[in-house]
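ok trying again, last paste got cut off:
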Amino acid sequence: MPHKKLSLTILVCIIIPISICTSFGQNAVQDSSGATIKGEVIDATPEQNPIVGVTVKIVNSADGQEYIVTTDKDGVYEKTGLPAGRYAISVSKAGYGDRFGKSEIVAAGGEIFNRIKMRKQRKQKSFFTYFFEFNGFLIIVLTFYLILYTIGIGYLIFYFISKI
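nice, full thing came through this time. structure:
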């Protein structure tokens, strides 16, 4: 019987407190590592190709702190060690339309994943670019006609002045 009391005392006094401390220690390590926001950026085509070099801005809604990461060759981004909270995610790259995602809430030690699609932007053309593209030949013909008309008027004026 004394052996049972001694075993029970060792169990209660030593092993249980150690296991409790160890489990709290694991939670503390997990919480201190912070939250993770990751995802991938793909194009809006049916092939959904990854987009390399996209700037991903992650903004903490509470304090305005910005975190910026860039997508890799697989279109993947990841930011770790974030404090828990609400974050707004936006992506941008030259030649593509900027995208602003909805706010996401991430818990301490938690993780969220976003797949973001981007569409290539069409190049903006000015009025003059369209005008000269579509009417280039017409402009050349009209300019030539105007030159000939001006020369003709000049000739007629000279002709009538010399007759007077």
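cool. Confidence is low (pLDDT under 50) at residues 20-31. Helices lie at 2-32, 127-163.
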